[in-house]
Specification:
Structural class: mainly beta
Number of strands: 11
Largest sheet: 7 strands, mixed
Distance between the termini: 36 Å
Number of helices: 0
Helix content: under 10%
Length: 126
């Protein structure tokens, strides 16, 4: 019944890689939304990781993940991905995918997103 379902999280050692997936219901065609990944660590606010416009012409990166993380989407599968490389302990968090309507830019503000997944835990530890 969930419209967005994340998967792919787990335990990985520092320097390792993970690929997260977010399967989106066909009721929400990705072509009409800005897409994003957010994360939230214990005791921390939810923060944007990567946000991409509907046309893929604009991207927001959190400074800490630039050069390490990549967001992509598969329109045919209606799925969003987050490839995470060279993971660090400070990347440990619950990761959420999100869709936003009527955004003029790939906003890092979670309040501007309309649909959310349940989250998947990523733990980076030796």
């Amino acid at each position: 019944q969930r419209q967005l379902v994340e998967s792919g999280g787990g335990l990985v050692q520092p320097g390792g890689s993970l690929r997260l997936s977010c399967k989106v219901s066909s009721e929400l065609p990705l072509q009409y939304y800005n897409v994003a990944w957010f994360r939230q660590a214990p005791g921390k606010v939810r923060e944007a990781v990567l946000c991409v416009s509907t046309s893929n012409t604009a991207t927001y990166y959190h400074d800490s993940v630039r050069g390490r993380f990549t967001l992509s989407r598969d329109g045919a599968m209606n799925t969003i991905y987050l490839q995470m490389n060279n993971l660090k302990r400070e990347d440990t968090a619950v990761y959420y995918c999100a869709l936003g309507n009527d955004l003029t830019a790939p906003s890092p503000n979670p309040a501007e997103y309309d649909y959310w997944g349940q989250g998947t835990q990523v733990t980076v530890s030796s």
